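Protein entry
_____________
===
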Amino acid sequence: MRNKIARTITVLILTTLILSSCLYFVRAAEDTATLSENTNEISNNTVNSLSLNEQKEQVEEELAKAEEQLTYVQEELSEAVVQLQEMDDKINEYQATLDQVNSQYEELQQKVAESEAQLQEAQEKYEKKLNLLKSRLVAIYKNGETKYLDVLMNSKSIIDFVSKYYAIQRIAEIDSQTIDELEQTKQELEKINNELEEDKAQMKIAKVEAEKQTVVLTNTRTVYENQKNSLSESEKQLNAQIETYKKQQEELENLIQYTINGSTYELKYSGGVMIWPTLESSYITSPYGSRLHPIQGVIKNHDGIDIGGSTGDPVYAAADGIIIYSAFNTGGYGNMVMIDHGLNSEGVKIVTLYAHGDKLLKSVGETVKQGDVIMEMGSTGNSTGPHVHFEVRENGSHVDPKNYLSAS
């Protein structure tokens, strides 16, 4: 009698457990249905108008960053040459903008392709797990509520009973884990899809901007060529001089940037003030900033300072570093030296440049200490007399050298 009562109690307990398990799977089935409906909604997600406006403003802000342009003295040049050169500057600006937009468009294209592949992989992963869970739930419903109870009651021993009980519990845990993974995959799908839609929206903006810039560039070039052909012979000669100068400046800047970017030395800039790069008795003859260039009528930002002196005066390394350029430059700087001083505490690469030397005294790859003589002052390149042109560059961008030099 006691055994019968005990068996009845055991059956009741197990029945309660199984019913709880079945209720769990019913809720899981409902969650699965919800997940399946949400999956279909994923592909319909679109970027809201606020997000699109923010992206458009960001793109327009980046495109609005004007590069330094030459200006011209109206009194020194004919109006036709001034207008032509200002138009040429605009053409260069439009081309730079177009190149930037096209580069951005290509990057977005690649990002979209990668996102689409990632989305497809995540979708397949989601569908696989979802189908697996559906199959499990269908099997449970078909077998009925007493399946697990029958399995347990047919146990041959208490050890067999406990083993089967924990096996059933493990199955429930796996199913629960599958549902959690499905939810995580679903969230991943939504994130990827939203990012994909945003990238596509940015692509559309970039494409429209590129098309607009292409039209503006083409039209401006046409007008430029027509006006150029209408110049007088003297105006054509002066215009050709200015164009040559501008081309030299562009090539020189490209060389400087290439040299800086190509320097892979792992150096640390110690900070502190740099020493005066030549004799203390010398002084600045042309400051940093806007100035009239020797070519008549052209005003261009002066990327450094000019320090006057005599041919043969020593030019010193302003700080410790490694020579990354030492050669004659045909772009107007003559004999030129560049020193990589390494990264400062903020991770900014500091480079100094010395130009118009009469004689180079150091070679590329040599380590120099502050105060070492690196070249002799001269007047090579585009120069009106002996001096050293001195620049300081932060991550390739020129800054006022006086911020680094001592008060003396």
Remarks:
- The helical segments are 2-42, 49-63, 79-143, 147-153, 158-229, 233-262.
- Residues 2-223 form one domain.
- Confidence is low (pLDDT under 50) at residues 1-50, 62-69.
- DSSP finds six helices and 13 strands in the chain.
